[in-house]
Amino acid sequence: MRPKYLFAAALAATALASPAPAARSETAVLAGGCFWGMEAVFEHVQGVSNVVSGYAGGDAKSANYRDVSAERTGHAEAVRITYDPSRIGYNDLLAIYFSVAHDPTQVNRQGPDTGPSYRSAIFPQDARQKAIAAEVIARLKKQGVKVATKIESGTFYPAEAYHQDYARKNPNDRYIVINDAPKVKQLKAKYPARFKG
């Protein structure tokens, strides 16, 4: 059994009691391997209105696929998730991130993809998100999960247009079939109340 399947029990205790913010829209920036799969998962989450593939952790000049793929920019492939906090909390997004969207025990890799641009990293958008992310990681580690995920800072830059909605537009692509479609199926199985078709 892969370690990530054990995360659900550890994450059950991370539902931090805090009132939903008054805002109807917030953003989260998460990195966990190829952004195609991360985008595909979060596009199917109730309360999420938009997911954009991009780069985080480097500068604007090098925020392009050619340079990021060369592994010299400091960027991670990431997604920017826009969500309604009255419908889904940030801690719930992190539960999906840690248990379905990627394997946070991997260092600088996910599946067939290797290098720092495929690292597991959370880019909090405010102090509250940073505190929640730190609490979730601490609880997972306390449960014995060897979490490689780091909390980082940096601006998010959208990726090139051809990367956006890649899994939805290319469902028969071999990479998507092997690596990303199973994540969406797992989301539906593990979180049926959170899944949108």
UniProtKB/TrEMBL annotation:
The gene is msrA. Belongs to the MsrA Met sulfoxide reductase family. Gene3D superfamilies: Peptide methionine sulphoxide reductase MsrA. The keyword Signal applies. Keywords: Oxidoreductase, Signal. Residues 1-22 form the signal peptide. GO terms for molecular function: peptide-methionine (S)-S-oxide reductase activity. It comes from the Bacteria. HAMAP family: MsrA (MF_01401). Its EC number is 1.8.4.11. It is an enzyme of class 1 (oxidoreductase). It holds the Pfam family PMSR. The keyword Phosphoprotein does not apply. This is Peptide methionine sulfoxide reductase MsrA. Residues 27-175 form the Peptide methionine sulphoxide reductase MsrA domain. NCBIfam families: msrA. InterPro entries: Met_Sox_Rdtase_MsrA_dom, Met_Sox_Rdtase_MsrA_sf. The lineage of its organism: Bacteria, Pseudomonadati, Pseudomonadota, Alphaproteobacteria, Sphingomonadales. Has an important function as a repair enzyme for proteins that have been inactivated by oxidation. Catalyzes the reversible oxidation-reduction of methionine sulfoxide in proteins to methionine. The active site is at residue 34. It catalyses: [thioredoxin]-disulfide + L-methionine + H2O = L-methionine (S)-S-oxide + [thioredoxin]-dithiol; L-methionyl-[protein] + [thioredoxin]-disulfide + H2O = L-methionyl-(S)-S-oxide-[protein] + [thioredoxin]-dithiol.
